[in-house]
């Protein structure tokens, strides 16, 4: 039937397009893990996945929540610029598809032209909250790192002082041992001198 054929085409479309969206991120995760290009590619891919799901569900409002969930996941990168990339992608998608094919994003044929601004507003609202959290988390991480660096420096200084003190004690011990050996030889030398002094002269 026509409906079955439409569903089958949608599944093929979702499969191949979804694979093309995920493959670059997977490759970059292995080739350049943790790099900026990987983070931003993941943001673009995640937002395009949201656009794909919104399209497949006919613009259902519930599917739009995938955008907000994706932004929350992207915030774990602790890089506010990644959120900016994601916001630009989702705003551009809503604007272009809202003008060209509004049913695929809003589920209606004649939405107001400014409808995408309402969606972007809520995305920006979440962005503000997430960016505040990211910046606060970065400040906390810097504070913890600074304290750990200070503790390491203190530990290094204490360790150096202990090594220096140990070296001084070893030197003092050697001096004491030498003095003790010298002291032990004095009575023997005195005994020898006294014995020689009181030895009867040979006739």
Account of the protein in words:
This protein has 203 residues and is mainly alpha-helical. 83% of the residues lie in helices and 0% in strands. It contains six helices and no strands. Helix 2 packs parallel to helix 4, helix 3 packs parallel to helix 6 and helix 4 runs antiparallel to helix 6. The longest helix has 83 residues. It is rod-shaped and about 135 Å long. The N and C termini lie far apart (147 Å). The model has no long low-confidence stretch (mean pLDDT 86).
Features of the shown structure:
mainly alpha
| Helix proportion range | over 70%
Low-confidence stretches are none
Quick one: biggest sheet? none
Q: Helices and strands: which structural class?
A: mainly alpha
Note the overall shape. Answer: rod-shaped
What is the overall pLDDT average? 86
Which radius of gyration do the C-alpha atoms yield? 39 Å
List the quaternary state of the chains.
Answer: single chain
Total beta strand runs = 0
Q: Please count the helical segments.
A: 6
Distance between the termini: 147 Å
Order of helices and strands: HHHHHH
Question: Summarize this, please?
Answer:
With 203 residues, the protein is mainly alpha-helical. 83% of the residues lie in helices and 0% in strands.
Give the topology.
Blueprint lengths: L1 H30 L4 H21 L8 H10 L5 H21 L2 H4 L8 H83 L6
